[in-house]
Amino acid sequence: MNRLSMGNRKPKWIHKPYPRASRFRDQLMISLSFGLFIFLFLLFFQPFGLGDIDANKSVYVLGFGLITTFVMIANYTLSSRIAPDFFDADKWTVGKDILYGLGNIISIALANYVYHVKIGGQGIDSSAIFSFLIITASVGAFPLTIMVFINELYLNDRHQKNASRISQQIESGILAHQLETKQKSVVIGDSERDSFELNEEDLIFVQSSDNYCHIHYLEEDKIATRLIRTTLKNIEVQLSDFPHMKRCHRSFMVNRRKISKITGNARAYTIHFSVSDKKIPVSRGIKKDSFFV
């Protein structure tokens, strides 16, 4: 079974794409929200013997909230630098988000425990560390679930509205008017032996697979596919003079003139064609307004 047929299978839930907060503004807001929640939770419910503290209790509890915020910001900042490929937003999945959440909980619990020991003048106790981990996980599970739910609803609504607006522009002919140009011949391939020529208007999209690319195009009004040995990066360079040919994903390059509509959900946008049933994903790093319009 080849890679393309395997790629058409629906992924298991844990492998499904999930929106990762990649902008610093979003990361900061999430970190501040979690820090505030931890501060309020500890102040009102007072676990870890906080009820026995009389002097400067609010200041002491505020330290836990600030540490939570700083640890989360540090994790966001360092994780993408240490392992950029793993934390790539386009490769982010439900499973990775769960692992990242567990890592956050553990690091927050350890940092807060060190703070608790230093301020309280106590010695390090392995059972106390375990208790901190359990309570931190219990406390953090609630805001984490709420944030995931809110994020899913927000992104789903935003993407659907943007997709609807872009589709209306496509249907009204705005995109076609902006890209109006004379048709030209396109030569795709790295060598004379492994290349072919076609009309730019017949090219639908290009899909990469390792060192090969599948060229999907129209031939006598029917969908045809040709496999050539080249990379998508090379094809992108070869088609640089054709403004309607744009890369929308690490594995796809599309003819924007063939787009019929755009749909979106909380995770991503999807391209639909007027001449093909194939649906193409749009990378989360693509600036949607500049790409479609």
Relevant terms:
293 residues; alpha+beta; OB fold (Dihydrolipoamide Acetyltransferase, E2P); 2 domains; five-stranded antiparallel β-sheet; three-stranded antiparallel β-sheet; 10 strands; disordered N terminus
Describe the protein in words:
The chain is an alpha+beta fold and 293 residues long. The chain has two domains: 165 residues, no CATH class; 111 residues, LytTr DNA-binding domain (OB fold (Dihydrolipoamide Acetyltransferase, E2P), Beta Barrel). The protein has eight helices and ten strands. Strands 5-4-3-7-6 form a five-stranded antiparallel β-sheet, with no helix packed on it. The chain has a three-stranded antiparallel β-sheet with strand order 8-9-10. A two-stranded antiparallel sheet has the order 1-2. A hairpin with a 5-residue loop joins β9 and β10. The longest helix is centred in the middle third of the chain and has 46 residues. The chain is elongated and about 85 Å long. The relative contact order is 0.10.
Structural topology:
Elements: H1 3-7, H2 24-45, H3 57-82, H4 94-120, H5 126-171, H6 174-178, E1 185-189, E2 195-199, E3 203-209, E4 212-219, E5 222-229, H7 232-238, E6 245-249, E7 252-255, E8 259-264, E9 269-273, E10 279-282, H8 288-292
Antiparallel strand pairs: 1-2, 3-4, 3-7, 4-5, 6-7, 8-9, 9-10
